[in-house]
Design goal:
heterodimer, A: about 350 residues, mainly alpha, MetI-like fold, 2 domains, about 0% strand, flat, disordered N terminus, B: about 260 residues, alpha/beta, Rossmann fold, four-stranded antiparallel sheet, 10 helices, globular, ABC_transporter-like_CS (chain B), AAA+_ATPase (chain B), transport (chain B), Phosphate ABC transporter ATP-binding protein PstB (chain B), P-loop_NTPase (chain B)
Amino acid sequence: MSTAAVTDKRASSLRGASLPTWTPWAIAAGSIALGIGISAAAGLHSSIQWALIAGLLFVLGTYGIAARVEGRRQARDRVATSFVWVAFVVAVVPLVSLIWVTVARGVKVLDLYFLTHSMGVVADTEPGGGIYHAIIGSLEQVGLATVIGAPIGVLTAIYLVEYGRGRLAKAVTFFVDVMTGIPSIVAGLFILSLMLIFKMEPFGFAGSLALAILMMPVVVRSTEEMLKLVPNELREASLALGVPKWRTILKVVLPTSIGGITTGVMLAVARIAGETAPVLLLVFGNPFINNNPFEGAQASLPLYIYQQFANSAGSGAAYDRAWAASLTLIAFVMILNLVARGIARWKAPKTGR
Amino acid sequence: MAKRIDVSGLTAYYGSHKAIEDISMTVEPRSVTAFIGPSGCGKSTFLRTLNRMHEVTPGGRVEGKVLLDDEDLYGTGIDPVAVRREVGMVFQRPNPFPTMSIFDNVAAGLRLNGNYKKSELNDVVEKSLKGANLWNEVKDRLNKPGSGLSGGQQQRLCIARAIAVEPKVLLMDEPCSALDPISTLAIEDLIGELKERFTIVIVTHNMQQAARVSDRTAFFNLAAVGQPGRLIEIDDTERIFSNPSVQATEDYISGRFG
């Protein structure tokens, strides 16, 4: 036993051998190189196979090296860490590549002209035209769906959390759960069956109704969770001041949770903004600008994207327009999310001094 | 403006569980009454029956009478909201409204009840904060959030909030148990001042505190776990702590409990 404990790692039972901090990077680089090498030797052509082999080598390599140098417990710790990293990369790669492809292809025709003109006089196979009619349609349909779906959803959640007791509340919860699982095409068919009964032509508001059906359960669920987060002590403090229950909910519970509720509503809006199926059935699509959601067929962004792909017989101009419309849709949803985050931060309970 | 409370034959339930049984006592106006007793003996439950907060808990119900001066709080046609305006409450953990500033917290009772004059609001807030001995510490930052205050200040803010609506009775449920000794002292001093204007009932686990602040003390106990809590005795504080008439009280106070 040496007394020069600083240099001799075995001298202290509290001090163990440890790998340098750059080890994970070195192992990652090594396993990627090795993965590509093995794949090339075995004649594998898919880059997904290469990546899987590299990922596997990374996890196994980390364990092997760490177990030799640092011991079993540290090795297990490093393996868990490397699993988390591999999972993270697996999750991020498709996201980043999706945005990359959409942006790269979408910017080709995306300009002010594209945003302010319709497809009225342009055949689907020709270049030119724009998405103004689809933006108008999307905004109106999603806006009307939100006006219907968000208040009903929030009020239902308030009922479930603040008032709901017994069978009715259980039934409501059950049906909300069932509604969460309704495929969008079924919601569309439901409204379509009503339209057929009353012999109506496709129009924007019918799409809004179907979208509202899809939106409501999402709003109920998220709002419910947010309301449950409000401490009971705040409700009791307010009640003990002689404030009626409805005012307590309105002035104490809702303001405390408004940030989270807004986020939930915005996410629900983002979800329905990309729905194609019910719009296809109920709004039908229209290359001309139709500002009236209550009469006549309208367009919408997801429907526009679908129709540009489907109806253009492989025309490059139509594909470009579809990508540009996709980029617009993603940007729209992203802006909504940013707004939601902004509101959540602005309205969050204050902790500052 | 302080009012007398007369309780007779009060039994409270949580669903089918009987939490307290057959409690009768009188709380004198302009005095401090302390409730002591082991955990789970129903002190807080009893306190919450005095302003009808007990029924806010799912399954909570009450039998018996609580007379505020001469009116039965559990009589027919009595509005629990109106009762709570007469009988204010301060909770164990400070719970200022997190979305509101210090000013808004104190004004909350008036604002949320809707019946106030704008010109009065500033005066009421200042008076309440002074009444809670908090004015000097917060007068320069009334627009800052209440959650930025220290625990002791938050609790005094909650007291200011409770007295801003001018209740007749103030119930305090272990108001100092989350506070340090200095904040506790501040609140005990405050209780001494407030009893000039209000009837005060305080639940406490700290027997020195009960001895320091209260005029009368009630001792609660339960026969066994799962049994309902009962009032063992209520008497002048001095007598309870020197020469109680029931052996169980003396055992509890002197630490020979159980």
